[in-house]
TrEMBL record:
UniProt cross-references to InterPro entries, sorted A to Z: Gfo/Idh/MocA-like_OxRdtase_N (IPR000683), Gfo/Idh/MocA_Oxidoreductase (IPR052515), GFO_IDH_MocA-like_dom (IPR055170), NAD(P)-bd_dom_sf (IPR036291)
GO molecular function: nucleotide binding
Name recorded for this polypeptide: Gfo/Idh/MocA family oxidoreductase
Source organism phylogeny: Bacteria, Bacillati, Bacillota, Bacilli, Bacillales
Alphabetized Gene3D superfamilies for the sequence: Dihydrodipicolinate Reductase, domain 2 (3.30.360.10), NAD(P)-binding Rossmann-like Domain (3.40.50.720)
Species annotation: Bacillus taeanensis
Domain of life: Bacteria
Domain Gfo/Idh/MocA-like oxidoreductase N-terminal: 6-121
Domain (GFO/IDH/MocA-like oxidoreductase): residue spans on this chain: 135-259
A Pfam match: GFO_IDH_MocA_C3
Amino acid sequence: MMKKVRLGIIGFGAQGGTYAEFISEGKVNNMEIGAICDIDPAKKKLCAEKYPDVPFYDNYIDMLESGHIDAVVTTVPHYLHPEMGIEALKRDIHALVEKPAGVYTKQVKELNEFAASKSELTFAIFFNQRTNPLYQTLKELIDKGEIGAIRRTNWIITTWWRPQGYYDQSAWRATWEGEGGGVLVNQAPHQIDLLQWICGMPKKVYSNVKYGYQRNIAVEDEVTTLLDYGNGATGVFITATHDVLGTDRFEILGDKGKIIVEDSKKITIKRLHKPESEMSASMSMQDVMKIFMGGDVSDIYTKEELEFESVWGAQHFAVLENFAANIIDGTPLIAPGSDGIHGVALANAIHLSSWLGKEVELPIDEEVYLAELNKKIAEEKSSLVQK
């Protein structure tokens, strides 16, 4: 049995560097750094200073075939995640793909299908928010029917403020060709995943998306989306990168109560004593007035508040440890790699609705999406030439 998983880190930027630090400091059980890969010569010098005993490669295929690693994590631009995941699995190397799983569902589907043919290997995605105790608790509450059937979801997550300088750091950032989108593919994939993980996938999407609204970029920096779950339930998802005062508030209304999540730190659960439909059918107007007038409502609903503390990095440790545990002893994955396609599908639908100016059904037509994305890339290239 393997004692420790030797992880190969592809891409030694902010994320890859952070993971290397966690592992080297012994914060991740059952894992060690097997090798590091980056195409930037400056990173080779940096790694030689920080991790002199760790092999360094400037070609990830060479690293995959080196015999120095058992698994990889892909901390690289989004378009490369599916390709690198497939190349690793081809060589019997376990794969932990960073979020998002890819830019468009067609390429993610190829990754998923190949991974399914190598079921003896571990294939996971870095959805670290699934290890957050708050969101695990929220999912349990919804799954157990604590507030009944969902009627409406409403998430405003605008705590992603990014100044222009952030976008000006490199030419590929916030471009259709380099990143494949803006806030939907870079900052908000965790919330998009959590939304569908907890509440289910919508059947239809209608969106109003602003491109380069408050920043000098080609991709989206403001998103407002209406979700239709197909059973009468609806939702609204709002995200942006220009709100310096940012809001993180997630409400889920059910027929037996409501759950409110504030700042990803506090859950408030209001449980109705009777389902709303029963109240509507049976309550006298005298009792109704108590609600309107702000009287004692303890006989209407109970209120519970749960507070959560967040330790920076702990959720990342948890994903890496869970990945290693699955490889070593088959511990179930918190975020199986095949789950990555759901968030990509939802982000693609939000983009496509805005590009076509109409409501779209899920699953969307992958060929139509790819054609529209390629148009955006071509327009982007043309504008650069003109400049």
